[in-house]
Design a protein that fits this description.
two-stranded antiparallel ribbon; 2 domains; 17 strands; seven-stranded mixed β-sheet; Rossmann fold; single chain; alpha/beta
Length: 350
């Protein structure tokens, strides 16, 4: 019979680990509730301002400008924020490199640069019941490390595919791992370029915002990410996290393709039409000669994620610079010097 003290110590250890996870989860839930309450307050203040004809009556959170005919400050704040994020997503072209579609013609397929020479493997985060991208990459005789903690088994097996029940997060907690830890346990070669596909249902923001130590990107020649829920830009915490995440990517990688997921649709954010979910392909800056992109999106390589609905037209996917918007007093955007393109500093938000 095992020593009862050893058994008790193991039980206490489990309680401690799960207790920490419960605290983290409860804090995250509390923060999300706070964000939702702020969003509701902002929308309500905008509605009151419109209903009152812009009469300057006092509103919660400083939402009204007090000047008849002017947009509510909350609306202008949202516009400034979405323009700041869009400024880090300006598409560029990799000179002399064609594109290809990897995966199916509908949801789960992504447009990438057709450049695979010297790639030694791929990391696929978030597969659910669709591993079509993974199988397309494995068909190129590349090993694919698959990660998804929400499924009991992968949707399929095959040569080169290796799944582990781990999820993506900003830190290692229970079955969640930061990007650095996922790379470490991937079983992929320790050297050589990789490609990364990330469809983490919103977890991508905090994971990438954690910075270079926990989310290293230098080994990924290409990165494909499905960015979720831009409609949360009205909430300060979400916006600041998203800005840090995109700035982290912008330092080493450039956007080379964008496509809206039409399952989620689009909406007006402070007067700017923007998709709620955006698929973005990045290319490492030191691997390609880059120039300004001139095409419109979607391209002939793109297709609607939901074939029963029309694709979402993005055009050249260029917007006014953040400085041309009129944010709330004190919430300006100041450009910084980056590898290429404009890179705004995070605003001072309330």
């Amino acid at each position: 019979m095992r020593n009862p003290l050893v058994r008790l110590r193991n039980v206490l250890r489990e309680i401690l680990v799960n207790g920490r996870a419960a605290v983290v989860a409860s804090q995250a839930l509390g923060e999300r509730i706070d964000d939702l309450e702020r969003s509701v307050a902002l929308m309500a203040s905008d509605l009151r301002h419109v209903a009152g004809g812009g009469n300057g009556q006092a509103q919660p959170d400083g939402a009204t400008s007090g000047v008849p005919g002017r947009e509510p400050l909350a609306t202008r704040r949202v516009e400034a924020r979405i323009l700041a994020l869009a400024d880090l997503l300006i598409p560029q072209r990799a000179v002399g490199v064609a594109k290809c579609r990897v995966g199916p013609a509908t949801d789960g397929g992504y447009v990438m640069l057709d450049d695979w020479a010297g790639i030694v493997g791929a990391v696929s985060i978030g597969i659910g019941n669709d591993d079509a991208w993974d199988r397309a990459v494995a068909a190129r005789r590349l090993p694919v490390a698959q990660f998804d903690h929400t499924i009991a088994a992968p949707p399929g097996t095959g040569p080169g595919l290796a799944w582990r029940p781990l999820g993506l997060g900003p830190a290692d907690v229970n079955d969640m791992r930061c990007l650095a830890s996922l790379i470490a346990v991937s079983g992929l070669p320790d050297s050589g370029d990789l490609v990364l596909k990330m469809d983490a249902e919103g977890a991508e923001w905090a994971a990438l915002a954690a910075g270079a130590e926990d989310a290293p990107l230098h080994r990924f020649r290409q990165v494909v990410i499905e960015f979720h829920w831009f409609d949360l830009v009205a909430t300060r915490r979400w916006f600041e996290t998203a800005l840090r995440a995109l700035d982290h990517l912008h330092r080493t990688h450039a956007v080379v393709h964008v496509h809206a997921n039409n399952h989620a649709g689009g909406l007006l954010l402070g007067g700017v039409f923007f998709p709620r979910v955006l698929e973005v392909t990045f290319a490492r800056r030191d691997s390609y000669a880059l120039e300004s992109e001139t095409c419109n999106f979607p391209t002939p390589l793109d297709s609607a994620c939901d074939p029963g609905r029309p694709d979402i037209w993005l055009g050249p996917f260029r917007f006014p610079a953040p400085g041309t918007a009129e944010p709330e007093d004190g919430e300006g955007f100041q450009a910084t010097t980056g590898p290429a393109g404009r890179a705004p500093k995070a605003p001072a938000t309330s």
